[in-house]
Amino acid sequence: xxxxFKIFMTTxxxxxxxxxxxxxxxxxxxxxxxxxxxWQHNASKLMVPIGGNSWSSYGGTINNRGLSVxxxxxxxxxxxVHFSQAGTLKLSIDIxxxxxxxxxxxxxxxxxxLTVEANAEKPFFxxxxxxxxxxxxxxxxxxxxxxxxxxxxxxxxxxxxxxVTNETVFVKDNADNYFYWGRRGPSVxxxxxxxxxxxxxxxxxxxxxxxxxxxxxxxxxNGFAEGYFGIQVNxxxxxxxxxxxxxPYQTDNPASIPPEYKITMLKKGSNVYTGExxxxxxxxxxxxxxxxxxxxxxxxxxxxxxxxxxxxxxTAYFFAPEENRWLLxxxxxxxxxxxxxxxxxxxxxxxxxxxxxxxxxxxxSNQWVRDTNGQWTALTAAKFTxxxxxxxxxxxxxxxxxxxNAFYLKNCxxxxxxxxxxxxxxxxxxxxxxxxxxxxxQ
Length: 442
Description:
Radius of gyration: 28 Å
Largest sheet: 9 strands, antiparallel
Number of helices: 4
Strand order of the largest sheet: 18-19-16-15-14-23-12-26-29
Mean pLDDT: 91
Number of domains: 2
Distance between the termini: 105 Å
Strand content: over 45%
Number of strands: 29
Shape: elongated
Low-confidence stretches: 1-32
Structural class: mainly beta
């Protein structure tokens, strides 16, 4: 009888302690919270930084430290994590409410409310989600009530559970400024297979489907070893045709380029701005502010001609269907260069971190090259590649392939699945070469 009583009391005490811990968990305040968080998380716990994986709407500021200036109950902050398998997800939040705040966290349609109270950053356990669907998952954070001016500052989430594995994908740290690059999203490229001839001209077309002209997008049509040429969405009211040539002097600061290495502008079209650029290499830049439209097809012609004096002239023309004519963008001379067009490619990138959560794509079609004999050759094969953000597996929302008789590129927006990097694609042989009267080009 005494033995049974001991078993009863032991079971009773364990159950009582478990209930107290659960109650403590629900309140998510008080001393010893760090130990409680450790007890509730699995050994597989990972920390997801807000600064490299989140976007806020209707207020709130995302920077390298995380979420701040969170004063409105309308603000929704989404943090994206890719899970490779289904299972349970346990979640905690590292937050400094600066008072007492009630917050709501929603994952795959299931919401949990939490009251947090502190004057310094602490981890607070939120709860567990069952049957998490694999793929990209948005952790949505919203304020309910607060005693301070702000709902708090948030630096990270802690995640564990059976859904969390070594294959769980997000931007893990800010080494090499990857909070910036991660929020911009992966850049994707088409590297064309070229004929073994001296190429003087590169022609191609781009169609951006309606709804894909997201602010921050650069749909680069005619890339070459020394520069790039395409169209951008710079703001809600401004779009550009951009053509740039890198200096042979390696620097990110155009002011440091010696005179003999500077790109020289030879001529430019009407209303075209020309100057210098830096930060991602440096050199000569030109752009035309032009209201190109999603759904229309635009044509690009790049010419590259060595002058025989250890310099090469690059000239870019843009065909505006709205005006039914070729427009000169600019012509640049690149010193210490003696080459025809090489390494021809196209790419798609997002240059604004604030829109890295929005998907965009374009069709790249009708690629042709012309050689020194005046012979046109169609480019029908391309290799799909992506940048280090993709190769490091910080982001998996990248794709490329063929659609009809065009190649396509797509990035950002946290879609699945990703196209395997270094895949190769081909389209059918084009029937008709471009008809261009070169004598009428400006």
